Amino acid sequence: MLPHNQKYLVFDTETEGLNLHSSRTWQVSWLICQGNKVIKENDRFISHKDLQINKTVERLTGFSWDKYNERKEPLKKVWADFKEDLFNPEYKIVGQNLLGFDVYMVAGMQRLLGETPDYSYLERIYDTRALGKAYREDLDKPKTNMLSWQYKIIHDRSLKARVSQNQLLKFFGIEFEEEKLHDALYDNKMCFKVFSALKKEMNL
User: Fold this and answer.
1) What pLDDT is stored for residue 59 in this prediction?
2) At 36, which CATH number?
3) H/E/C letters for each residue in the chain?
4) Is 2 part of any domain?
5) What's residue 143's pLDDT?
6) If we measure between CA atoms, which residue out of 155, 53, 29 comes closest to residue 100?
7) Handedness of CA 13, 44, 181, 147 (dihedral sign)
8) Domain that includes residue 128, residue range
């Protein structure tokens, strides 16, 4: 079981689109938590000269060009700060659909900087989409190799439980503002509440 005072990194990205190889990240937000408390918030916007944000993405994420242009920073600066926490072995890493999406966006950031993607942090991930599906399908958690088990759940088409963040928040009776979902920082806060519920129910 996870220690009561375990430290967590909860992160999310917002991107141009859903292409795992070519879509670029324009917002990366992360929380540092300990136990059930948030102790630090980070919300960063990444500068791209020819950023492509379509109307659907604008509507879903509440994207604002004014806000983006005011707050955008060089990718190199944002990545330097983010990777300090991402590769800190003290932190377990939490997020919604990290294994199906965000880890590829992190790799994309590294490639844009001319770096070879480093996936060493994956072993510390607790993906609320995988955990939520396991809980709703009444699957036993593994005794070993949590990462492999989560990947199997994500890719098992026979598992039909609905486990978007919106659906998990409703399932656990967590109050949230639907219009704020898809903003990375707000999503992280809601994701950590979902994870806290799953941790309790699944004896993680």
Assistant:
1) 83
2) 3.30.420.10
3) CCCCCCEEEEEEEEECCCCCCCCCEEEEEEEEEECCEEEEEEEEEECCCCCCCCHHHHHHHCCCHHHHHHHEECHHHHHHHHHHHHCCCCEEEEECCHHHHHHHHHHHHHHHCCCCCCCHHHHHEEEHHHHHHHHHCCCCCCCCCHHHHHHHHHHCCCCCCCCCHHHHHHHCCCCCCHHHCCCHHHHHHHHHHHHHHHHHHHCC
4) no
5) 87
6) 155
7) positive
8) 7-202
Q: Tokens 């190889």: give the residue.
A: 21
Work out how many domains the chain is built from and give that number.
1
**Would 49 be classed as within a structural domain?**
yes
pLDDT along the chain (204 residues), means of 10: 96 92 94 97 96 86 91 98 98 98 98 98 98 97 94 95 96 94 93 98 96
Copy the structure tokens of residue 97: 């659909």
The reply to whether 97 falls in a domain is yes
| Residue 184 falls inside a structural domain | yes
Distance CA 138, CA 136 (A): 5
pLDDT at 19: 87
